[in-house]
Design brief:
Elements lengths: L2 H18 L13 H10 L2
Amino acid sequence: MDKALFDDLLASVKEMDQIRRGKRKPSRTSVIEPVAVKKTNVKHS
């Protein structure tokens, strides 16, 4: 693996660990409503 790509990956993993431990807030979050998932599943069945 290219060193620059590995360094990027390592920085991301360290950031994820900080977020998981509550030392840092995520830059964005996603909320998926269960009803929306159910509607999508029915629509594509």
